[in-house]
Structure formats: C-alpha cells, structure tokens
Design a protein that fits this description.
heterotrimer, A mainly alpha (119), B alpha/beta (333), C mainly alpha (159), A: 119 residues, 78% helix, 0% strand, B: Peroxisomal Thiolase, Chain A, domain 1, Peroxisomal Thiolase, Chain A, domain 1, 35% helix, globular, SpoVAD_sf (chain B), acyltransferase activity (chain B)
C-alpha cells in the first residue's frame, strides 16, 4: 500500500497535468484561464464529495495540483460552517489553504529582495 | 513629392551619412553579431531597470551614429524616434539626454521605417539639414509590459517571437556619402481579425502585403527592381504567409530576394521560436547589416518593409483583435 | 470560443484567417502532453515523498501532511524562479509545471522579482498577485458558492 501510492500519485498527477496541457494547446486557453478553471472544478468536486476520495487514493497526485486548492477552500468553508453555522463559510475558507498562500507570499517577497530577473 | 496614393518620392535623394546598431548579449550570439557597433554583455547595461537599459541602448545608437559622421549633437536639427514602451519613454528619455528637438512616433515595430520616412521627408523638403531617426526595443521590458514577467513559466507556442534587445539609428542629411533614400510608402492600418499576441507574424503579414502592393502600384515598377526586399519582423510564420499572399495576388516576388529581418538576426540554434521581433529588430538589421552590405557593393537597391502590431496589453484583454501597419522605405546606393 | 469570434469577422477576414491557420506551425500536442505527464507526475511523486517525510519525522497525519509538503514545493519553485531556471523547465514541461502548486508559486515569485524596479510597495506589493489573482478570486468565489449551495441543500433536507 505504501509504495503503490507513489505510483498512483505519479499517474494521477500526470493525468491532471495532461488535462491542463490539452486545455492550453487544443482549447487555446491561457495558463491563467486554465488554472482558474481547474481550481473551480476542484471546488465543485470538493463540494460533491468526490475530491477527498481521490486524495486518499492518489495522495500527492491529487493534493499537489492546483485543483486541490479549490477542494481545500470548500472543505475549510464547510468545516467552519459545521461548527459556527453559515458565517463559518466566510471565516473558514482560508483555514486549510493558509499555509500555501502564506508561504507563497512570504517567500515571493523574500525572493524579490534577493533575486534579480535573469531574462 | 507625392506619387500615387501613399508614396513619397524624394527627388533630392536624402543621404544616410552614418548609422549605428547596438545590441545585447543574445544578439551577440546571433548571426549578425559582426555588424553591430556595440554589443553589451547583459540585459542590464549597468542600469537598475530594463526600461533604463533600453533608453541607454537608444542613446548609444544615436551618439555612435552622430560621432561616426564626425558631427556633434548640436548640428542635428531633429530627432525622430519610437519604441514599444508605454508613452514611448525610451525615446523621450533618450531625447532628454541627447537634447535635440524631438518628434516621438509610435508605429510599434514599424517605427524604424516610419522614422526614416519622416526624416527623409524633412530633409527632402529642406525643412532640416540633419535628422536622426532611431528605434529601440528591449526583450525583458517588452515581455514585462505586453506579456508575462520573464521568470514566469508560461510555455510559448511555436508562433511566438523573441523581442530584440537593440537600438538602431540613422543620420540623414541633404548631401554626403552613403546610401540614399529614394522613396517611402506609408502604410494603412490593416486588421484581419487575428487576436493572439503570441502570433504577431500572422497578424502583421496582411499589412506588409498591403504596403508592398501599394508601393509597386504607386511607382508602377516591378519587384525585380530591388535586389532585396526585407520585411521587418514577420518571422518564419508571417514571412511565409506574406510570400504566399503576394503570390496569390499575382505580385511576382523572387523568393531568394525576399527575406525578413527577424529571420536574419538570430542563429538557428537560438531558442527564438518564429524569429526576432521588436522595433529594434528592423532597425539594427537595416542600419547595421544591410547598409554594410550596400556599402560593400553587394546590394544596390533594397526595400525595407517594417511591420508593426498596434495592440496594447489592455486592448488584448478587452478582446480586441490586433490591427497592424507596415511602412516601406527604399534605399539605393 | 473560436466560433463565436468567427461570426464577427468579414468574409475577407475569415478567408485570411483560414489561409494563415494552414501555414502556422501547430503546437505538438502529443509531445507536449507526454512532457506534461512526465514532469507533472514527477512533481507529484516528489510531493508524495515529502508527505511521507513529514509523516515519519514530524508526526503529521495522512490528512495533514499535504500542507507542509505543498509549502516545501512552493519554496523550491520560488528558489528555482529566483535562479532563473524555472522558466526554462516550464517551457519544456508546459502544464507539467503550471498545473501543480509550483505554477502558482512561480506566478507570484516571478511577478514580485520583476516588479522590484517599481519599488517594494507599489511594485512588489502591488503586482505580486498579477497572475495568481484570478486563481485566488475564482477559487474563493466558487468555494463560497459551492459551500452555500451544499449547506442550503442540507438545510432543505436534500442530503
């Protein structure tokens, strides 16, 4: 079981990226449009309860792609709503994704202090 | 003098008494490295922003052209220049340093020939004795403004082009030694509905074809008159489309005499997809490589058709297509 | 999407666009998909390895190990972006680097690094979300809609 999850994370992660590639090459969407669509799809699948089983099955293959960001946003909202009622939707959205966004902001800022664009 | 609908014939034959081409590190690895006056080692040129570096490129090109003619900035009446930056700041700030009366123009990548045409008109009409026409572009500054930050990991399609980091300038005079500008055809804006900023070649090709046809129609001559017809930066995609369109419309352009500055400037192994582009592209190739070939006697009559895509980052987001323009200048030895 | 645009074109424009399309090099879809699959798969596998590492040495559980693993991937992407390496990998890998969370980190880091010349407040601060803003806006908004819908259905006794 332990090793199989590595194989599935490779395959499922790869497939999600291929879907993104097809969206860009065949449907001529920009990377921003592609990622936005995937996030929204992730949120919808999360709401339908379909994304968590995928994460259980494929591990990082489902949690690393940007779709899981949408799923985590929904999960955070629903978790807080369960505890605090409908206002929890607002207070809980960033609960789970906080580490990702915070890390991105903090380290991007640090990068801007240290690095120059290379062209 | 006006000939036909949109062509000026310069009876007094304004002379390009000197010219200069300045480039960056990537151009130094290219096919025309020998024909640059100055080549820089990196994209910063010792400045702290890319926009300032582009201004420096243009300043150097103008100052080099003026000093090659053994003249001073004070001898030049007008400076005509354009570039890709918002509000053409590279040209305006270079004009500030150069201190010459300034006419800023915007023709996107067709600015070099728009500038040369206007400079020649000023000289021919005796409205000036010396005029400098320049154009510049900087790869990173252009990417930052029109597309994505340079370190962004977006995949570029095979139709994309590489903006040249370079500036070219020509000093035009009423008399002297050098290649002469015989006529210029001013182009109309042509929009065939292409809206992909990663496929400028296909967007610009119809404008180039329109101007080329107007040129031959107005002057009533045949394409065989020229030793070389070079488009500015159509790249491999746009250039082949233009060639096919001209064939389709019955204009017999000889294929071995029809080239593109964006195809000439880089080597085959450089990752430039469809070829070079930018205001600097047609400027450095014409004012460096092509004029050198003319002075060596290899070419006697050339037609440079600089092509520009007149979009802005905002127009693209507002789902507008890309209107394009092309200006043609004929230079004879 | 292209059909809607075609209706607004004149016949000459349409004819030209078809003419041009025949002469354009097409992106090699199959090659790009294979590359995206490989790189995307590798990045996710590295993520899986990081999750295992955090579970074994830092007492994270299967559910919570995803967070630190993503954070590490984010930091690595930002470093590669800073060193000027990421864009070259991404040109080769396409969606393989864009779709995982690495793509998100790269959009922020590249914008921040590029706009330093406009100052730290307006340049870096003001532009950091230039490319990633859409993902966050639509992610949050769709999560909001989905959550409200789900709660409404539950409240109506539907679930």
């Amino acid at each position: 079981m332990k090793l199989w999850i590595f194989v599935w994370s490779f395959i499922v992660g790869g497939i999600i990226c291929v879907i993104g590639q097809i969206m860009m090459d065949v449907f001529k969407l920009t990377p921003a449009h592609t990622m936005t669509t995937l996030v929204v799809v992730g949120a919808i699948l999360g709401g339908l309860g379909l994304y968590d089983p995928l994460v259980k099955f494929a591990g990082a293959g489902a949690s690393v792609p940007i779709m899981s960001f949408g799923n985590s946003l929904v999960k955070g909202a629903l978790m807080e709503a369960e505890k605090f009622g409908i206002i929890g939707v607002l207070t809980g959205i960033f609960e789970i994704t906080s580490s990702g966004i915070s890390a991105a902001i903090i380290f991007s800022f640090l990068a801007s202090l240290i690095f120059k664009p290379k062209g | 003098m006006l000939k036909g609908h949109q062509t000026w014939v310069f009876d007094s034959k304004p002379v390009i008494i000197s010219s200069a081409a300045v480039g960056g590190a990537f151009e130094a690895e290219g096919a025309l490295a020998e024909d640059f006056d100055i080549l820089h080692e990196d994209i910063w040129l010792g400045q702290d922003s890319f926009e300032k570096a582009e201004k420096k490129l243009l300043e150097e090109a103008c100052e080099t052209a003026i000093s090659k003619a053994k003249m001073k900035k004070e001898d030049v009446q007008f400076f005509i220049s354009g570039d890709l930056m918002n509000q053409i700041i590279s040209s305006s700030f270079a004009a500030r340093t150069l201190g010459m009366p300034f006419l800023g123009i915007f023709g996107a990548c067709s600015s070099s020939m728009e500038g040369l045409a206007l400079a020649s008109l000023l000289i021919d009409s005796k409205s000036a004795e010396y005029v400098v026409a320049g154009a510049s572009s900087h790869n990173v500054a252009a990417e930052k403004q029109f597309r994505y930050p340079t370190e962004y990991g977006g995949q570029k399609p095979p139709t994309a082009q590489w903006t040249v980091t370079g500036a070219g300038a020509a000093l035009v005079a009423q008399k002297g030694d050098g290649p002469k500008v015989s006529c210029a055809t001013i182009g109309k804006v042509v929009d065939m509905g292409i809206s992909d900023p990663f496929n400028m070649g296909a967007a610009m090709a119809p404008a180039a074809v329109d101007t080329i046809e107007a040129h031959f129609r107005d002057l009533n001559i045949d394409p065989s008159y020229y030793d070389l017809i070079a488009t500015g930066d159509l790249g491999s995609v746009g250039h082949s489309i233009a060639g096919d369109l001209l064939d389709k419309h019955g204009l017999k352009i000889l294929k071995h005499r029809f080239t593109d500055c964006g195809l000439l400037i880089y080597n085959k192994d450089q990752p430039v997809m469809a070829g070079g582009s930018g205001c600097g592209c047609s400027a450095v190739v014409t004012y460096g490589h092509l004029l050198k070939r003319m002075k060596k006697g290899e070419l006697k009559k050339i037609l440079i058709v600089a092509t520009g895509a007149l979009l802005s980052p905002l127009s693209y987001q507002q789902k507008e297509s890309i209107p394009c323009i092309a200006h043609a200048v004929s230079i004879e030895m | 999407m292209s059909n809607k645009k075609k209706k607004k074109l004149t016949p000459i424009q349409q004819e030209y666009q078809d003419f041009a399309k025949d002469r354009e090099p097409k992106p090699q879809v199959l090659k790009n998909c294979i590359r995206a699959f490989l790189v995307g798969g590798i990045i996710c596998t590295i993520g899986q390895g990081l999750q295992w590492f955090f579970m074994k040495y830092f007492n994270f559980t299967k559910e919570t190990a995803g967070n630190p693993a993503s954070a590490v991937l984010i930091i690595i992407s930002i470093l590669l972006t800073g060193f000027g390496v990421y864009d070259h990998i991404a040109q080769w890998a396409g969606a393989g680097t864009a779709v995982p969370v690495t793509g998100f980190a790269n959009t922020m880091a590249s914008a921040a690094i590029e706009h330093r010349t406009e100052g730290y407040v307006l340049g870096v601060g003001g532009n950091m979300f230039k490319l990633s803003g859409a993902v966050i806006v639509y992610g949050v908004f769709s999560a909001f809609v989905v959550a409200i819908l789900k709660l409404t259905i539950k409240w109506l006794g539907g679930m």
